[in-house]
Amino acid sequence: MTLGGSTSKIASLVRPTLEKLEQIYRRPLFDLIQESRRVFLEFWPKNEVQLCTLLSVKTGGCSEDCGYCAQSAHYDTGLKKERLMTTSEVLPVAERAKQNGSTRFCMGAAWKGVRDGDPKFETMLETVREVSKLGMEVCVTLGQLGDIEARKLKEAGLTAYNHNIDTSPEHYKKIVTTHTFEDRLNTIGSVQRAGLSVCCGGIIGLGENDTDRLKMLEVLCSLDPEPESVPINCLTPIEGTPLAKTPPIDVFELVRLIATARIVLPKAKIRLSAGRDRLTREAQALCLFAGANSIFYGDKLLTASNPEVDDDRALLKSLGLEPQTPYSDQPQPTCTL
Questions:
Q1: pTM metric for this prediction
Q2: In whole angstroms, what is the distance from residue 277 CA to residue 289 CA?
Q3: Under the phi-then-psi rule, with left for phi > 0, alpha for psi from -120 to 50, and beta for the rest, what region is 72?
Q4: Across-strand partners of 162?
Q5: What secondary structure, in 3-state letters, does 213-245 show?
Q6: If you ran DSSP here, which 8-state letter would residue 82 be given?
Q7: What span, in angstroms and rounded, lies between the C-alpha atoms of 184 and 180?
Q8: 103 in a domain, yes or no?
Q9: Does 221 map to a domain?
Q10: Of the ranges 11-15, 126-130, 180-184, 282-286, which one carries the lowest mean pLDDT score?
Q11: Residues annotated catalytic, as ranges
């Protein structure tokens, strides 16, 4: 697979081809889950789940036209545009997240990107500095950035940068027109060069097919180093967006993707992300058994709903799972066949 002239570093090591991914993905479901569970236990032997809290620090009014997003200024979704939160406003939320058991605190801002010297970027740097003092992993998603911005975020204490590729390169242009798939890879390249962990995954339910999903995995396995975290989101249809009428994804399709991701990205944290509030407890348990080992924890994800904290505590307790502690060293995931 060729990714054009991306500045993102591509691995020279052998990586799974689309044909190999197809072979893994299309196994009988029980055989697939059995293999993903074997891989999971080899690399993640403890009964742990990473608990992450996600806060929208700047909501609405985004200039991008992502067809799934309630925060795009291109669509009338009824969402009120809000200013960037100050550090003093964010810190109490981060402190509560830690008290509730979260070990990673994630902050998202609805805008195209950030540039060095911009007052809003300086505010985010200060917020990262203060949140990092709480002892949690700190992740942000601020849109596009370059080498200078990534380096300064690293120096401020940032652990990871989230920048999802969403879907395959071919399908991406059908859901976003204000930036390109290559733009996403360029930002990921800057994050890698700064020595930050890459948090990068996708969304299923965007009208894509199975091949698009596997091509997305193919790209993730091509990154060097590969993502430390891989969020798997299920589309939450938002009235007013182009994808508002998209039908829900069959849970077994979600499980297949999680299991395949676990097999080819064994050391990554596979995060069961948006759309989890639409899954039954049994479906969530199956996803965790198949290889997911991270969830967003708290009753809100940016602008979307999420299971209540008490419900998640009860689920984890019933499954015998404990919160995962923050890592101290930069992980180096390896893609396997």
A1: 0.90
A2: 18
A3: beta
A4: 199
A5: HHHHHHHHHHECCCCCEEEEEECCCCCCCCCCC
A6: -
A7: 7
A8: yes
A9: yes
A10: 11-15
A11: 62, 66, 69, 106, 139, 199, 271
Query: How much is the CA Rg of the chain, to the nearest whole Å?
Result: 18
CATH number for the domain that contains residue 124: 3.20.20.70
Q: What angle is formed at CA 166 by the lines to CA 16 and CA 283, rounded to 5 degrees?
A: 85
Is 13 a domain residue? no
Question: Is 6 inside a domain boundary?
Answer: no
SS3 277: helix
Longest CA–CA span in the chain (Å) reads 53
Please enumerate in sequence order all residues whose Cβ is within 8 A of that of 111, keeping only pairs 6 or more positions apart, or say none.
Answer: 58, 61, 62, 63, 120, 142, 143
pLDDT digits (tens, 9 = 90+) for 152-188: 999 999 999 999 999 999 999 999 999 999 999 999 9
Other C-beta atoms closer than 10 Å to the C-beta of 276 total 25
What residue numbers bound the domain in which 126 lies?
34-319
Containing H/E element for 176?
none
3-state SS class at 211: helix
What is the number of structural domains in the chain? 1
| Token output for 248 | 């829900």
